[in-house]
Amino acid sequence: MSQGESGYISACHGIVGAAKKIERGIKENLSPDLYIMGNPITSVVAFSSKTLNIYTIGDAMTKRGWELNALQRPSALHIACTMLTIPAVDTFLQELKEVVAEVKVSMASAELGEGPTKKDKEGDMATLYGVAGTKIAGSLRIVPTLAEAFLDNLYKA
Predict the structure, then answer these.
(1) H/E element, 142
(2) Total structural domains in the chain?
(3) pLDDT confidence bin for 154, thresholds 50/70/90
(4) 148 is a domain residue
(5) Residue 140 maps to a domain
(6) Does some domain include residue 31?
C-alpha cells in the first residue's frame, strides 16, 4: 500500500525484466549446455541441461549463495526473481557460466578416471529429488512428512 500503484507497477517491470534478462543470458551465453524450459512470461525462469547434471549445477550455485529450486520430471532448476534479484542478474549469470564450466571440467575428469565418478559428484539436490521421485517415497509419504516437519520447526517461534 505504501508504494502505491506506480510503485507496484515499477516493481513488476523490474522483476519481469530481471527474469527476461536471465532467460536471454542463458539462451545467448550458455546454450547448448543449458536450455530454457517453456516460455517464461513472469518472474520465474526454469532451465535444464541435456548433457550436464542439473542438480550438480544447482548444488554448486547453492554453495555460491544462490537459492535455486530443483524440479523433477524433467530434472531442472528454476529461479524465482524478486526485487533482490534485479541488481544481481549480471552476477547470477556470470556465476552460472562459471559453474557450468566447472561441471563440464569435472565430468571430463571423471570420464578419464581422474577424479570422482559421476555418482560421487551428485549432491544434495540429486539425492533429495532422487528419493522424492521413487514409488517407495510416495508410499511412505516422505516428502509430505519432511515438509510438515520443516514447517512445524519454522513456526516454533
Answers:
(1) helix 142-154
(2) 1
(3) confident
(4) no
(5) no
(6) yes
Whether 24 and 36 have beta carbons less than 8 Å apart is answered as no
Look at residues 41, 48, 98, 40 and name the one whose alpha carbon lies nearest to residue 68.
Answer: 48
Cβ partners under 8 Å of residue 17, min gap 6: 86
Compute the distance between CA of residue 6 and CA of residue 120 in angstroms, rounded to an integer. 51
Q: CATH number of the domain at 58, please.
A: 3.90.1150.10
d(CA 142, CA 148): 10
State which residues form the domain around 68.
4-122
Separation of alpha carbons 58 and 15, rounded Å? 22
Segment 69-95 shows an average pLDDT of 96
pTM of the predicted model as reported, rounded to 2 decimal places: 0.74
3-state secondary structure 50-93: CCCCHHHHHHHHHHCCCCCEEECCCCEEEEECCCCCHHHHHHHH
* Position 77, amino acid: L
Residues 6+ apart with CB under 8 A from 120: 110
